Amino acid sequence: MDAVEGTLRLKRLLSQDDEAPEEALNGKKRRTKKDSATPAADEARIQQLLTRWGLLQDKVTRHVLETLTPDELKLLDDSYVPDKFNQMRGPGELIICQIAAIKERVGPGGGSADSVLSFRHRWKMNIDEEAMLRKITHKELRYVMQEFNGDISLEDFLPQASASVADESVTEGTLPDEPGVHVISRFNRLELIDPLADAAVFGDANLSFALMLAKHREALGHVGRVIATTFETLECLRERYQEIDSTIKTLEDLCSEVYHGVDCTRIAVDSRFHGMEGSLGAVYYNFPHAGAVSGFFDGHPCVNWRHENLMRLFFRALRSFMKPGGLVKVSSSKGAVGVRWFYITESAQENEFIHIETMPFREWHLHRYGRSYGDKRDVHRRPGQGEGYNVQRAEADMVYTFKYVARRLQVNRPGLGELCYRPVVRSTRASDAFVTFRRLYKRFVTECSGTHACWGFSCFVAPKSQPVVEQPQLRGQAPVEAALLGAAVAAVPQVALAGNSGYALLQLGWAVFIISLGPAVLFWVYFNKPELL
After folding, report:
1. Phi first, then psi: what are they for 455, rounded to 5°?
2. Are 264 and 228 in contact (CB under 8 A)?
3. Is the separation of the CB atoms in 46 and 59 below 8 Å?
4. In this structure, are residues 359 and 399 in contact, taking their beta carbons and an 8 Å threshold?
5. Residue 92 belongs to what H/E stretch?
């Protein structure tokens, strides 16, 4: 649920802005102290840069600098001064463009990059090692890309790749002796994806891409579903696209599912996606955009953060729904100033997706779908009807391709067999030890499910009538039954209750609140017995 937490955290940051107008706070109390997440060393460098550039009063430039990493700040400190008199862009936007140019030089960039070039940059290889990769066969290159971990040099690893045996029962094992880089590039361009896995399409306003994908999969004999989604509601789509009902019917005839009003950053809390965890083998998002803001260009720092967060939250939300090895393809212009190319690549890398190739959009087998603006302009004109996007060239459109490589993010609990191993816990009687092990095992299973039981700390009983005591409503999971807790409080004034839940468990006519003390949480129950104070 980290995808949901990230969205809620962003909402809290916006609602707690200490400079927001009173009417925007909806009656909430304004913060009296502003939290600073910028480290002291970075703050000193930012102050130094602003002083040197004469921009100490420029809050937009300060905001841009606060979003940069220490390495990026150092690069600006070494060799860059923004043009304060630029008529088209302000200093903050010029700084973002400079960072993009630096990343273009040191990485694979936003332009075309085949699988070997992407692999080389991921493992920081030299040009000689890249030349070796370009000479090997398809079987060997597949093996290197799947098994190489950097423990030994590439030259020493290649004999293992040569000795490997290709599995020709799967699509990726075909043509083992052909040139590797060309065969892998053809795989990505011809859209030869997992035939058994589901494929999801996000942000497809007129559903023309989803329709093309569904027909493509049917022609190849795939049995996986196509899940087509739109951000707009069906009523909105009917106003913009006269053909939408027939498109939806055709998709459903091809055994596809169509969902409307889908926010791709919040699919973790969308009930329509429940049960799809680990089922997606391919995901598509063509030309993502967070929406225009009147009075601002997409590249302006005051609105550009929305596009960056769109990509970060999109990839974060996908993680629990992707199959290991599943592909994600995001189409965008390498010169886009809204969703910039490095927003896509960096967001993917931060969320366990590795970049495997960037191919020109027009070389993609699925590029001839009916593109749309995705807004009210579609009522009167479309990009394919002699109209085009402003400041966009077809040769600059790219398809950024990523593979999901799940890492080990948690440690598995021991099984009952490991817990029952005698040297772990010594006991005088085997029966007592087994009872202890069963209780411990049950506790581990309960905690892993998100329910935290109450264990040996004191609850204190005090009057409900205290004015400082609030009565929170029941939230979260309550492992203790109300009747059991009521009987315990009635029996003794001090009840052994504790845990690490972090929520008010019950409301039984007493007020309950929580104080966190390290790993445990004390539950203070105030009851109508003044003599206990």
Report:
1. -135, 145
2. no
3. no
4. yes
5. helix 91-106
pLDDT attached to residue 461: 37
Q: What are the extents of the domains in the chain?
A: 1-35, 37-106, 115-180, 193-404, 412-449, 452-532
* Average pLDDT, integer, range 170-187: 91
Evaluate the CA torsion angle 226, 228, 234, 239 in order and state its sign.
negative
Q: Residue 447: name the closest of 421, 403, 479 by CA.
A: 479
Mean predicted confidence (pLDDT) in 255-264: 95
The number of beta carbons lying within 10 Å of the beta carbon of residue 240 is 19
Residue 202 bridge partners (DSSP): 285
- The Cα 157–Cα 150 span in angstroms is 9
Phi, psi of 274, deg, nearest 5: -65, 135
Amino acid at 56: L
Q: Which amino acid is at 150?
A: G
Q: What are the DSSP E strand ranges found in 263-396?
A: 280-286, 322-333, 353-360
CB 58 within 8 A of CB 91: yes
Of the pLDDT bands very low, low, confident and very high (cuts 50, 70, 90), residue 100 is confident
Question: Judging by beta carbons within 10 Å of its beta carbon (0-12, 13-18, 19+), is residue 270 exposed, middle or buried?
Answer: middle
What single letter denotes the amino acid at residue 188? N
- Structure-block tokens of residue 446: 């309960």
**Secondary structure class of 489 (helix, strand, coil):** helix
Dihedral (CA of 81, 84, 85, 90) sign: positive
* Token digits of residue 4: 């949901």
β-strand partners of 392 = none
Q: CA-CA distance, 339 to 288, in Å (whole number)? A: 7
Superfamily of domain 193-404: Vaccinia Virus protein VP39 (3.40.50.150)
CA dihedral 71, 72, 73, 75 (to 10 degrees): 90
- Tokens representing 360 are 């020109």
CA 435 to chain centre: 43
